[in-house]
Amino acid sequence: MIRYLVIIISVLLFYMEPIFGLFSPIELNGDFYVLVPRFLIMYLIFIAIYYDRKRAMLYGLIFGLLYDVFFIDIIGLYSFIFPLMCLVASFIVKFIHNHLLVATILSLLLVAVVEILLFLFYTFIGIKTMTFADFFHYNLIPTMIANSVFILMFGWAFKYILLNRFNQKALLLQK
């Protein structure tokens, strides 16, 4: 069962994001704050760090293409960004210690990069017309807070599951 657990978690996170997206925007004191759940990309980054870079990039490509088809109708945007973030995470971890705190901070930083890249792309093609300051205040900060709560709750579980799967895979290769 643990063999399929990595992909099952990916599928569950893919389906959970739109459900949590229904809670957004949140109104506080007359201002609307947008919380964008990025659970799947954080999990893919953990896969790239603790399990297998190639598999993370493959899952990133597949789920990115699904994001493109189901959510935004611009084919190629997420299917390019997701594998790119997995690749960047795996290269960064080669040069720094592979610790849970490092993986958590790195995944949050890469989620911020994803959000900024998406904002720049949408601004460039004319879908978004807000300023960067408004985006930072009303979109990026609430998104980072929501995703940091998620990764603080589940990051240790992701690491545990992925390391167990990696160890199981290594044992099978030794036989």
What is the structure about, briefly put?
This protein is mainly alpha-helical and 175 residues long.
What does this structure look like?
By secondary structure, the chain is mainly alpha-helical. It has one domain. It is 80% helix and 3% strand. The protein has six helices and two strands, in the order αββααααα. It has a two-stranded antiparallel sheet. A hairpin with a 2-residue loop joins β1 and β2. α1 runs antiparallel to α2 and α3 runs antiparallel to α4. It is globular, with a radius of gyration of 17 Å. The mean pLDDT is 88.
Protein traits:
mainly alpha, two-stranded antiparallel ribbon, 2 strands, globular
Low-confidence stretches: none
Largest sheet: 2 strands, antiparallel
Which sequence of SSEs, written as H and E, runs from N to C?
Answer: HEEHHHHH
Question: Quick one: how many beta strands?
Answer: 2
Count of the domains: 1
- Fraction in helix: over 70%
* Shape category: globular
Strand order of the largest sheet: 1-2
Alpha carbon gap, first and last residue: 19 Å
Number of helical stretches of at least 4 residues: 6
**Nearest-angstrom radius of gyration?**
17 Å
Mean pLDDT: 88
Strand portion: under 5%
Assign the structural class, choosing from mainly alpha, mainly beta, alpha/beta, alpha+beta, or little secondary structure: mainly alpha
